[in-house]
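Morning run. Coffee first, then this:
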Amino acid sequence: MKTVFADTQLLHAPRHEISDGELKPAVEIPSRAEFVLKAISDRKLGEIIAPEDFGLAPLQKVHDAGYLEFLERFWEKWQAAGRTSEAFPFVWPVRSLRADPVPNHIDGQLGRYSMDAGTPLGENTWLAAKASAHTALAAAKIVNEGAASAFGLCRPPGHHAGSDFYGGYCFLNNAAIAAQWLRDNGAERVAILDVDCHHGNGTQSIFYDRSDVLFLSIHADPREEYPYFLGHADETGTKGGKGYTRNWPLALGTDWAGYAPVLDEACHWLKVFNPDYLVVSLGLDCFENDPISGLKFKTEDFSKLGKRLAQAEVPTVFLMEGGYAVDALGTNCVNVLEAFEAV
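And here it is:
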């Protein structure tokens, strides 16, 4: 299996995040990707290649133009305001407040285009996020050209980012960008299966009224776990997309024995949909030792996940999402990919 990765993705290197009401060391850090790359190399999974430059057009198919401009020009505006540290928003246009017109002040723009205070923006965030999206596109292109699978080592991750907001360490929605590119390049139907411990709220919102992209998500119950405000079982789509979103929220502490039957159900709906391609939002934070997650996979369970996904027999694009137990991240990731290839 080919892996796609760009060194530019390491340039986004946050020092802190706001978590549990405190300023803490960041957990979405460059070493996440470095540990995965090492495991891929050590276990000889396959060739590691850099993505081509796909330009902005595929990003513009998914994301709001004003939002993309905000990300691209953020650091310039931040510096013009006399700021030099990484940036956190502190005010949001909730409920009775207005999101439009977009404020001129950079602090207002941070609030307008974010969903949380825990995702810092820095000097190289845009460059890294764009490279991460191009990594996803390159992996999708490999599969579109006939490969059974490919792995996009996307970092920063993407599934919490909506069409016009960032959050949850995510800036550009890599899975949505890849799925839309596949649709634009001949696919009639694309499915996205999100197995991250946290619900892919951004991906769901992007495709919620569409029937050409099926969104399936298995995740910790949002009543107890981030992102809290999306991912309930009664969210099934709207308008023409009714029935093309399905969520399985799980109780905190769920292990593989509780997870496997739900995965079988998700794979049943995948078979019913019969997609041309499957995009897997490969969050690895279901691991029992992950510092910010509440599910209880053991390392060997990731191999079981890969084997079950292979049984769907759909050309598959794997895109990395979360996973913050850094020392185990490479092993858990390659366990999925090796088991998928072995079937």
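The mean pLDDT is 98. Good start to the day.
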